[in-house]
Amino acid sequence: MTAVEMIDAAQQGRLDVLVSSGGNYLEVLPDPAYVGEALERVPTRVHMDIVLSSQMLVDPADTVVLLPAATRYEMPGGVTETTTERRVIFSPEIPGPRIGEARPEWEVFVDLAKRVRPELVDKIHFDSTAATRVVPLPDHDVPEDRFLVTTRRGKQFNSMVHELRDALTGAIREAVMVGEEDAARLGIGNGSRWCSATPSASSTDVP
After folding, report:
1. What is the Cα–Cα distance from 130 to 108, expressed in whole angstroms?
2. How confident is the model at residue 73 (pLDDT cuts 50, 70, 90)?
3. How far apart, in whole angstroms, are the C-alpha atoms of residue 116 and residue 38?
4. What is the pTM of this model?
5. Which residue would you say has higher pLDDT here, 82 or 60?
6. What are the residue boundaries of the structural domains of the chain, listed by start?
7. Quick one: average pLDDT of 71-75?
8. How far apart are CA 74 and CA 47, in angstroms?
9. 78 and 91 in contact (C-beta within 8 Å)?
10. Please, which residues have CB within 8 angstroms of residue 157's CB and are 6 or more apart in sequence?
11. How far is CA 18 from the centre of its chain?
12. With 80 as the cut, is the pLDDT of residue 165 above it?
């Protein structure tokens, strides 16, 4: 289920357990009163995060468990992360004090998966974060006159305020950044408007 579907299921009494890692349904989804009421109806809620959030404080139907998570900087072996601009980068472990009870989220989910699907234990075991990164990258065959857009800018991120104009670049929300060489090749300039004449073009196709 999607986040919205899970909240609807909780509201209807169809959700027995909700495990929430990071995020905050109460602050991100529309209609906080509806979301709060839905969370109150879940018999068992588990919240795992590096900070306290308002959704953790919603009264439980029965049980609420709060688990401290390790930050990305505390994870042995380092991890990859997705930046606000949707770039995947490596974040190395930084030495320093640790909270003993805090665990990396990926370890918790692996343990949970092993308990839910014990017949798949041999397929979901990882010795380190490096072992989780051996998945081969997909081969995207993008036509010459198309781009695969996988980026976004700030002010459009989770529970941040959604601004109409990017305070950093001054660009409006609908703007698409195009490299100088590509723009010259395609004959487009700063402020150019574009709409696709190809019916099959999707929102991720930008000539």
Report:
1. 16
2. very high
3. 24
4. 0.67
5. 60
6. 1-68, 70-135, 143-207
7. 93
8. 19
9. yes
10. 84
11. 17
12. no
| pLDDT, tens only, 2-61 | 889 999 999 999 999 999 998 899 988 889 999 999 999 999 999 999 999 999 999 989
Q: What is the token pair recorded at 93?
A: 């472990």
Residue indicated by tokens 């509806």 = 34
DSSP assignment string, the chain = --HHHHHHHHHTT--SEEEEESS-HHHHSS-HHHHHHHHHT-SEEEEEESS--GGGGSPPSSEEEEEEBPPGGGSTT-EEEE-TTS-EEEE----S---TT-B-HHHHHHHHHHHH-GGGGGGS--SSTGGGG-PPPP-----TT--B-----TTSSTTS---SB-TTT--BTT-----HHHHHHHT--TT-------TT--TTB--
